Amino acid sequence: MSKLRISLPTRIFLFSFVTVFLVVGAGFWTLNQAIRAKIHVRLKESFQMNGKLSDTVSARYRARSVQMLSVLSENAGLKAALGLLRELPAGQRGSAQVRRTIEANLFELGKGLEYQLMVVTDSAGHAVAGTVTRPWGTIPLEPLPATFIPSPLIGVQEALYEATTVPINLGTENLGSLTVAREFDIASWSPSGETALLQDGKIVRSTLPAVVLPEVESQIRSKCMESEESCEISLQGESYLALSLKREDWGPDVKLFGFQSLDAAMNDFTRDFVGTFLWIGVGGMLGALLLALIGAYSVSRPITNLILRLKASQQAGHLPSDFPIHSSIDEMNLLASTLNEAAQAVEESNRQLDKANLEFLETMARALDARDPYTAGHSDRVSANSTAIAEAMGLPEKEVDIIRIGAQMHDIGKIGIPDTVLQKRGPLNEEEFKLIKLHPQIGKRILEKVGSFQDYLPIVELHHEDYDGRGYPYGLTGEQVPRGVRIVHVADVYDAISSDRAYRAAMPPQQVLEILMRGSGTQFDPEVVRVFLKLLRERQTLDRLLSEAQLAVCYEEPSQP
The pTM is what? Predict the structure, then answer.
């Protein structure tokens, strides 16, 4: 058998080709591993940096939320409703009226704010009312959660929210708490690649396809839970780098993982270099090594520049929106473009939040500066008595609710009256009385700008109109004054004469009774007076008044027509 004979040129070609092939192959493999390691490190740094920036933005958002909640939690309506709830017997603490009152306050407090969920709990931690924002508008939260434990991440009605909670206190006593939240957007944490949120080792939110979630969950539990920063998993034959990000306020059982395909990144980075390595193979080992060094530098430089800019932006506390997108690497352009969009979205969100904060705080400051300390207690009592009268008269539930809330706000116009007049000790002069008489119309002007408060305007504006037309501001008579207004008028005068005022002490019981009975048919609607006196008698209040007044004639209730 003859030996295979190869010509010298062919042999040189073959040996040179094999040598260059081995050198280029070894160089490519070495470069591949180096690039893979750099991609691993740079992606991890980029993800962590982006997470820190997002965490900083979230921390500022939470700080603003706490500041805003500190103001919202001082809302007199919320405190009054929770106080009323606390006074109710245990079996009545699910009162629909109290819940609607709190919901009405939450609707008003939430206007202009970006929260999707607002929940109020009582002092025992039970949810008593809430609102949730849907695409079509804000609605009451129904049904309420059976258990509600405030935490940074809460699940309500199959949605996950980032929440902030502050207590609602009356002095040193806790009445409950107010929780506001915005929906957790898992996509916002993945400028590129995929993301999964795990709680107690189980995926609760993810941008990954649902079909791969069991496999991802299993590999994370076995490979990544002990790792503090990153690990590698295999998914459908492809290698992924799983990057862990912790949020201190989420607790130790909650982890956020970002997933980057190492194979895809490697393919994208090395695709253009294969032909180059074959072309420079005839140049030998030096050429291969030189091009390998140039290739490594050209790959790492854009990522290095991006990391340097991210580090600088972290120190400045501002995420820039002008990352260059003219790199020769598509993935770098995609990452830079996504970061630019995220930065613009964060900037716009902060701008809107700052605007809402400013407007809200200005409004609250004006209201708090002008608030009369007497009004809250007086309004609570007038509201309670008005509601009792309306229910005793058998009025529809909706009308009773309007009377209850309208009575609560009937003196809101006194915000515009100077404290020197409201708290004056002694009779008012003519000018001061003219000022006091303006408060119904001031209250109307305050509330008429809020569309949902239109039903309460008659009570606020007309609660000083007398049955015989001698009241103010318009001198209306009889049925010209709405029924709810006539009810609140009686309750208002009763509380005013039976309680202490800045300018005088409470009137004696005899005088209170005489004023109510003498005013029936003149100052007051006689039917309302009749029902109110019946209520007082049922409370054993009328018997006490009659005894103290030593009246010789017993009051007899008029017969029904």
Answer: 0.39
